[in-house]
Write a structure and sequence with these properties.
Elements (H helix, E strand, L loop, with lengths): L5 H15 L6 H10 L5 H13 L12 H14 L5 H10 L7 E4 H15 L3 H21 L6 E4 L4 H13 L5 H5 L13 H17 L2 H34 L1
Antiparallel strand pairs: 1-2
Length: about 250
């Protein structure tokens, strides 16, 4: 952990002690706690504390959490590790031989395959498998001694469709976080816009509509025309009547 992680650790310890209904640790005690487990990365420490309070044996006691509890949980997790066994790792590694395939594997699988690739290329599958198992077990043991958490990572193949299937499967299996996986996939295809012919046709339709007008506009125009015609007829009748009157004078 870095010094920036101290506040997060302090808050989490307060939460655990509050959950157990016991006094909070002093600042000096928290500093001692921090230094005792500082060699571990914060995500690993956070998971270890969570595992401690969920532990059926340890989680039921109303006692202060100790650095030894955290270290014990980390070491137990390291022993289990969640890493594939050597045979499962070999099956995953074999898929990585095909450059078209996208494979999600661990650092130890990738490292062991790199060591035995010359044997594979020579065509000795049996010898490669035996050498891979030895290399993989050694790399896993080294990682556990160094308390390195398991990390899944993708090896991208050339086939885009297979890549999408493999990455999606890894996300669903919880091997890769969704945000990181999204960056590995191509962006969605944009919707096709209108073609030049389509745009020209749309412009012509708009022009015709502008000349035709709406039904309401057409009704208003018809009424105005009828009114104008009626006014003209009445004006003509008035003029004829006036002319007849003058002729009789």
């Amino acid at each position: 952990m870095s010094e920036d992680d101290f506040d997060a650790l302090s808050d989490l310890l307060d939460d655990v002690h509050e959950l157990r209904g016991i006094p909070l640790l002093s600042d000096r005690a928290k500093a001692l706690f921090f230094r005792a487990i500082q060699q571990f990365p914060w995500p690993l420490v956070e998971k270890a504390i969570q595992a401690h309070i969920q532990d059926p044996a340890e989680g039921k006691f109303r006692s202060p959490i100790q650095p030894a509890h955290v270290i014990g949980q980390i070491e137990q997790a390291m022993q289990q590790g969640g890493r594939p066994g050597a045979d499962e790792a070999w099956a995953i590694a074999l898929r990585g031989r095909d450059e078209r395939e996208t494979v999600v594997w661990t650092e130890e699988i990738a490292g062991a395959l790199s060591e035995v690739r010359p044997v594979l290329q020579a065509g000795d599958d049996t010898g490669a498998r035996m050498a891979f198992r030895q290399a993989y077990d050694r790399l896993v043991a080294d990682a556990r001694r160094a308390r390195r958490p398991m990390r899944w990572m993708p090896s991208l193949g050339t086939d885009a469709s297979r890549r999408e299937v493999a990455i999606t499967h890894a996300v669903n299996a919880g091997l890769l976080p969704a945000p990181a996986a999204a960056a590995l996939l191509p962006p969605p295809m944009p919707e096709e816009g209108p073609t030049a012919a389509g745009l020209a046709q749309l412009a012509e339709v708009k022009r015709l509509l502008s000349t035709i007008g709406s039904p309401r506009d057409r009704l208003i125009d018809a009424r105005m025309t009828a009114n104008a015609e009626e006014r003209a007829r009445l004006q003509a009748a008035k003029q004829r009547t006036a002319a007849a009157v003058r002729s009789r004078e």
